Amino acid sequence: MTSKRPQAGATVLISGGTRGIGRAIALRLAQDGASIAMLAKTREPHPTLPGTLDSVAAEIVAAGGWALPIQGDVRNEEDITRAVGATAAEFGRIDVVVNNASAIDLSPSTTLPAKRYDLMQDINARGTFLLSRAAVPWLRQAPDPRILTLSPPLNLDPRWLGAHVGYTVSKYSMTLVTLGLAAELRPLGIAASCLWPRTTIATAAVEKVVGGPALMARSRAPEIMADAAHALLTSPAAEVSGRTFIDEDVLRSRGVDDFGAYATTTDLQLDLFVDQ
Questions:
Q1: Distance CA 118, CA 126 (A)
Q2: In whole angstroms, how far apart are CA 173 and each of 54, 65, 154, 215, 221?
Q3: Torsion of CA 136, 138, 141, 147, to 10 degrees
């Protein structure tokens, strides 16, 4: 499903987006009339996971946005190049890149298969670098260009450095790439920042990989990350570029003090890399 709308409103290119936080961000930005291009793998329905490129594209249009679903893999540089080209051809611009796609495996180093290590580095670190870089020629033409990466603050406490090293390296690499791009691209007027949840978020990864239904019950809804992403992307670039943010802190800075709409419990689980 496509809905062509060149040169009107912000155009966002997001990796992933068929479920979870990526989908929530896409739908939140669609409420502002944004054009959303999604680079993701899922075109056919998954037997156990909800959401496909086409189903979320329909939701984006229903929410008030314009949608361009692009099937591809962020690990594949040719797919990234094709996605950037298709987005620019369809909408005439790229204003925002959201690095959302991510793989997770919390196995300790001694049991983590090399293929799983490589998968996390390829999607998380390499994908963030390649997608952001590929979009730079278009971002530099935008009036308020942004890169937003869903990655954590660089918490060097041994508690985190010693936990699931393969995953930690991949997520910290996403942050380092983004902070590095913020410094490198500042002369071009391109802002880059990172966003991470204070608590676990009720996503398929949390349910199926991290903690099951019990942890899902102690997690906030993905919409808190979507609202925080929207707040960052509408904040002055000079105030946010080159920084890492926690979703709750972002919203509190915007005057939000009631987070009950995002969770059904107060017994919330802090997310990885976040200290009390």
A1: 10
A2: 31, 32, 9, 26, 26
A3: -50
pLDDT digits (tens, 9 = 90+) for 63-113: 999 999 999 999 999 999 999 999 999 999 999 999 999 999 999 999 999
Say how far apart CA 195 and CA 48 lie, in whole Å: 28
pTM score of the predicted model? 0.95
End-to-end CA distance of the chain: 44
**β-sheet with 146-149: strand ranges across:** 66-71, 35-40, 11-15, 96-99, 146-149, 191-196, 244-246
Q: Which of 136, 147, 36, 132 is nearest to 90 (CA)?
A: 36
CATH fold of the domain at 11-262: Rossmann fold (3.40.50)
Residues linked to residue 191 through DSSP beta bridges, in sequence order: 146
Question: What gap in Å lies between CA 17 and CA 69, rounded to an integer?
Answer: 10
Residue whose pair of structure tokens reads 């890169």 in the numeric block: 147
Task: Please give the Cα distance from 239 to 246 (Å, whole number).
Answer: 15
The type of residue at 90 is E
Element (H, E) at 96: strand 96-99
Reply yes or no on whether 167 is catalytic: yes
Which has the closest alpha carbon to 124: 166, 182, 161? 166
Task: Give the pair of three-digit tokens for residue 207.
Answer: 């349910």
By three-state DSSP, how is residue 219 classified?
Answer: coil
Q: Tell me how far apart the alpha carbons of residues 81 and 236 are, in angstroms, rounded to a whole number.
A: 29
Q: Which of 117, 167, 172, 262 is flagged as catalytic?
A: 167
